[in-house]
Design a protein that fits this description.
mainly alpha, 2 domains, 4 strands
Length: 135
């Protein structure tokens, strides 16, 4: 048998040889082996991203229970966090309600609502969007 099966089929179109199919299969397998570690690395980096609550541009604003930003001293509002929340902390806060270390449990829900209100262009949005992507 020659390099292609064209003689058996006629001139109806290109039919790859067995060798071509094997080469393509080997290339596909090596691609899968290469991409999987990259996806694992991406998943790890998403859990280490940070979301400041509120964004540094908010200038000392407090966070209301509904997640909106309000003036300092507003009754029921939570003060800004001293440090940004890591992706893993945000994931646990949003999915199971687990309060991150060093965060007042009564303010945690306000912070969760603030994070849910993040939009494109706001500090921390890319991290939040990455956490929403299915794995």
């Amino acid at each position: 048998m020659s390099g292609t099966d064209e003689e058996a089929i006629g001139t109806s179109g290109f039919v790859p040889s067995r060798r071509t199919v094997l080469v393509l299969g080997a290339a596909a397998a090596s691609t899968v082996i290469t991409v999987r570690p990259a996806l694992a690395q991406t998943a790890g980096s998403v859990l280490n991203c940070e979301i400041p609550v509120p964004a540094p541009t908010a200038g000392g604003s407090y966070v209301a229970p509904d997640g909106s930003l309000v003036a300092p001293g507003t009754p029921g509002a939570a003060p800004p966090l001293a440090r940004p929340l890591r992706g893993e902390e945000v994931k646990n806060l949003l999915r199971s309600g687990a309060t991150p270390a060093g965060v007042d449990p009564s303010a945690a829900q306000a912070y969760a609502n603030y994070i849910r209100r993040l939009q494109a262009g706001m500090s921390g949005f890319t991290c939040y969007a990455s956490l929403q992507m299915p794995r």
